[in-house]
From TrEMBL:
Keywords in alphabetical order: Dioxygenase, Iron, Oxidoreductase
Coiled coil (residue ranges): none
Database matches in CDD domains: VOC_like (cd16350)
Transmembrane segments: none
Protein name: 2-oxoadipate dioxygenase/decarboxylase
Annotated source species: Populus tomentosa (Chinese white poplar)
Length: 374
């Protein structure tokens, strides 16, 4: 039934919206709210079927292993669409993935988590992205707060009962299902001027938050393309706000799970050194290596790439895009006597750490980007 619906929807979407046949990083999908689509019983069926038309999920299902449910295959296809947009826009991430694959097991480069940024106003916050993952069995975990940055975040663990951990094979989004980390700007804590700018664009989005996943997969904004002056004004107060204004729901970063690597690069310190020796610039905020207070979660990241963005007032400027992160999760103390081959993912430190994440956020900051180009 799902396969027939996907095929039918693919034809419908191609006829009604031929512009979806090519990813356009500056295309806005606010016009979608003017279209009419079939009503379904699932709140995310439109999102996933829209992706299906663009990326031929029906064809992928026919070639995939029969033991995975179609719903899981659809979700992986959506993640794959997001990943393709991310790699196309961020050459550093692609170059690092290719480099690591060249010296490690190319079929087992696994993602620890995927991260997204949102505006916490009028439905466009964490829930706008989280709803898709919750529909596919992800579970909400604890909240993290960043008062100085006026942010909060939630992370979501992969669905249980599916091959998201050690039994899964494959690389990237086709490997173990990643954790999801979604942050939100607390817009009501900004200055009245900054709030006015953000709300102006949110108004042009309307119910665009309902299509956050689609926007992420297509690399599109759900609101009107901004003025350069508005971008500049937001950047003075919140670089996070300015980043979100021009990047929308695009993947902010993917994170390589270093402890799943097969060579000496499984040690994040060795990986950091390897990357620096190959000319990659790592985020130096708080030190290249970010370590949780318990010493069990180690993280690092590159400095974000930049992308040329044409603003609606005619200015074309370089703006920060995304970056790639690395995470090593050490074995919990109660499992320290396990043999290496006995250690599974649930034996390792889970979750996130505010102190680490606060510094990782700086990967898109002007200070770090200046270091990159200086």
């Amino acid at each position: 039934m799902a396969t027939k619906m996907l095929s039918l929807y693919s034809t419908t979407m191609t006829e009604k919206m031929p512009y979806l046949s090519t990813i356009n990083p500056h295309f806005s999908i606010i016009s979608l709210k003017k279209k009419s689509f079939p009503v379904t019983g699932s709140r995310n069926l439109f999102t996933t079927t829209a992706h299906a038309s663009r990326f031929e999920v029906d064809h992928q299902i026919s070639r995939s292993q029969g033991h995975e449910e179609e719903s899981l295959l659809l979700m992986r296809s959506v993640l794959g669409s997001m990943e393709r947009v991310y790699l196309k826009r961020n050459p550093t991430a692609k170059a690092i993935l290719d480099l690591v694959k060249s010296v490690d097991d190319a079929d087992h480069i696994c993602y620890d988590h995927l991260a997204f940024r949102t505006f916490g106003v009028k439905g466009h916050g964490i829930e706008s992205m989280a709803s898709f993952f919750l529909d596919y069995g992800y579970k909400q975990q604890e909240e993290l707060k960043f008062p100085a940055k006026k942010l909060k975040a939630l992370w979501f663990s992969p669905p249980s009962g599916l091959p998201h951990e050690d039994a899964a094979t494959g690389s990237g989004v086709n490997g173990p299902l990643p954790r999801i980390f979604i942050s939100e700007l607390l817009v009501d804590q900004l200055s009245p001027q900054a709030q006015e700018i953000i709300e102006k664009y949110i108004e042009t989005s309307g119910s665009g938050y309902k299509h956050a996943t689609l926007a992420s997969a297509l690399g599109s904004l759900t609101w009107k393309k901004p003025f350069f002056s508005d971008f500049q004004q937001l950047a003075k107060e919140s670089e996070y706000a300015a980043w979100t204004l021009v990047n929308g729901y695009a993947l902010n970063h993917v994170t390589i799970s270093t402890h799943r690597l097969k060579t000496h690069l499984t040690n994040i310190r060795a990986l950091n050194q390897f990357l620096q020796e190959n000319g990659f610039n790592l985020n130096s905020e708080g030190g290249v290596l970010k370590v949780s207070p318990d010493g069990l979660l180690l993280q690092s990241s590159t400095v974000a790439d930049s992308i040329s963005f044409k603003f609606s007032d005619g200015f074309t400027e370089s703006v920060p895009c995304s970056y790639i992160e690395f995470a090593e999760r050490l074995v919990l103390p109660q499992y320290k006597n396990l043999l290496k081959e006995e250690v599974k993912e649930f034996h390792r430190r889970d979750g996130f750490e505010v102190g680490n994440a606060d510094k990782i956020f700086e990967s898109t900051s002007k200070e770090q980007l200046t270091r990159r180009t200086g």
